[in-house]
Amino acid sequence: MAASTDAPPGARTHLPGEPGVWVFILGDMLMFAAFFVVFVYYRRQDVPLFVHSQSTLNQHFGAINTLLMLTSSWFVALAIHSARAHVAKLCSRFFVLAFLCGLGFVVIKFFEYREKIHAGIMLTTNDFYMYYYMFTGLHLMHVLIGMGVLTYLTSIARGGDFQAKNLNVLESGASFWHMVDILWIVLFALLYLMK
Amino acid sequence: MESIFSLKVTPLWIILILATAVSWEFGHGFGFGSHHNYATVAVVLIAFIKVRFVFLDFMELRAAPLPLRLAFESWAVLVGGTIIGLYWPGS
Questions:
Q1: The whole model's pTM is what?
Q2: CA nearest A41 in B: which residue?
Q3: Is residue A182 in some structural domain?
């Protein structure tokens, strides 16, 4: 098994990033798995309430945020390809673009929460909205942390040193950001689209 | 460096965007009429297929050591399967 970060030619396997980061990612994903199951379980107890509450969500905000998350993940994947090709300028630009998508996500979330709060819909309104605020709020924290990570990765990319150690850091941060994307894909399906 | 259009992640990104559009339609009942439960199962399936491809090609688990790849693929199958299993009888 090749444990290095630079995917040597002919290597049969390659672990992108630090093993510890993967343990963290898996732990985080297990926590969200429990949230998803809890949500669907309690939804079953009162389907009309959940369906009615969901109909008051602004689905366009949810859909645009999904497109932003997917696009940011694509930019991050392109940044990693650029780093492996030792193209610093392109690599840092892709990380900046991914960061801007994350920023767009946060801005849209701000308007979405504002719309709800102005309509008097709070965490305590009902079970659906309790889960909505808790899960999207926790995910939003991940987005903000991820944006901090992307800023750090951009500074590494600008340095232009893509030796194994730095590439390992870039891959670790990229994997975290992809996880943030994955969690939103499921949240969008459950909170906004499940009928 | 190769052009971004020749990298595998670019067609995948386009497919993920298209899959989002399709699940949006299913989420609004398209194709299943009043059978919203079939549409929801389609939405969940599409979501977890998207998740699997983000695992494999964005997170690069396709080339990762097998136990790690299996752990994440199992996550997708178990979580997606549990959601559909819990949803179906109550839908």
A1: 0.93
A2: B86
A3: yes
